[in-house]
Amino acid sequence: MLTNNIPLLKTDRLILRALQPTDAPNLFEYFSQDCVTEFYDLYTFQHLQEAEKLIKTWIDRVQESTGLRWAITLKSGGNGLIGTCGFHNFSTENNRAEIGYDLNPIHWGNGIMTEAIQAIVNYGFETLKLHRIEAFIDPANHASRALLHKNSLETEGVLRDYFFEKERFVDAEMLSILNR
Ligand SMILES: CC(C)(COP(=O)(O)OP(=O)(O)OC[C@H]1O[C@@H](n2cnc3c(N)ncnc32)[C@H](O)[C@@H]1OP(=O)(O)O)[C@@H](O)C(=O)NCCC(=O)NCCS
Questions:
Q1: Which residues pair with 73 in a beta bridge?
Q2: Whose CA is nearest to atom 19 of ligand 1?
Q3: 169 occurs within a structural domain
Q4: 3-state SS string over the chain?
Q5: Residues with Cβ within 6 A of ligand 1?
Q6: Residue 114: which CATH number?
Q7: How many other C-beta atoms can be found within 10 angstroms of the C-beta atom of residue 153?
Q8: Over the stretch 121-178, which tens digit does the pLDDT of each residue have?
Q9: Which atom of ligand 1 is the closest one to the Cα of 135?
Q10: Probe ligand 1: pick from 14, 98, 147, max atoms within 8 Å of CB?
Q11: Which residue has the least CA distance to atom 45 on ligand 1?
Q12: Are 135 and 173 contacting, i.e. CB atoms less than 8 angstroms apart?
């Protein structure tokens, strides 16, 4: 099921490619905005090095076969990263993985992440042979819920005080899609 190779995935408007250390300035541009980190277990970035560290974490996970994270780029906009998406917390024995994503706010509301999620969910089911793809969101993250519902993930319930993030406990809404 697991792979340490990031395949190039293409959609109508997007190319999903492997992350590179040189993507850090583009990632920093939006992780330095409060609206992006509001529902993350990360504080808003103050320094470019924080973006470099996050990209290194994602690249290391790929090399260790514990995660897959793609850089989202626009076919019409050169090779520059505008967002990321991928899988982590693989459970090999249960054939499942968790999905995660983020997008530069200048591109919000244009269906970009819907396109990206469709591509990686298909890859997860068809190539990785996952049985279940799941997501945890903050119940107040309405954009994230709408995105996942649009991509056929269903809400299963809310786990109370499930994560300790930024000095406080937060609930987690769990969603999933099954490969049946
Ligand atoms: C969540 C996020 C990736 C959505 O990306 P996006 O490209 O704007 O989403 P899409 O344009 O594909 O929208 C998908 C659906 O969600 C809806 N939606 C998007 N933003 C919304 C918002 N703020 N409130 C309510 N619905 C919203 C869209 O209307 C669309 O549904 P529709 O086509 O039926 O109208 C983006 O808001 C983001 O990066 N947020 C910050 C990071 C984050 O929270 N990541 C997830 C952590 S769990």
A1: 15, 81
A2: 143
A3: no
A4: CCCCCCCCEECCCEEEEECCHHHHHHHHHHHCCHHHHCCCCCCCCCCHHHHHHHHHHHHHHHHCCCCEEEEEEEHHHCCCEEEEEEEEEEECCCCEEEEEEEECHHHCCCCHHHHHHHHHHHHHHHCCCCCEEEEEECCCCHHHHHHHHHCCCEEEEEEEEEEEECCEEEEEEEEEEECC
A5: 36, 39, 101-103, 108-114, 137, 141-144, 146-147, 150
A6: 3.40.630.30
A7: 22
A8: 999 999 999 999 999 999 999 999 999 999 999 999 999 999 999 999 999 999 999 9
A9: 48
A10: 147
A11: 102
A12: no
Q: Which atom of ligand 1 is nearest to 110's Cα?
A: 11
Overall pTM > 0.85: yes
Structurally, the chain folds into a number of domains equal to 1
- Does residue 167 belong to any structural domain of this protein? no
Residue pLDDT, tens place only, 31-86: 999 999 999 999 999 999 999 999 999 999 999 989 999 999 999 988 899 999 99
What domain range includes position 85?
9-133
Q: Does the residue 154 lie in any domain? A: no
Give distance in angstroms: CA of 23 to centre of ligand 1.
22
Residue 177 lies in a domain: no
Ligand 1 atom index nearest CA of 113: 7
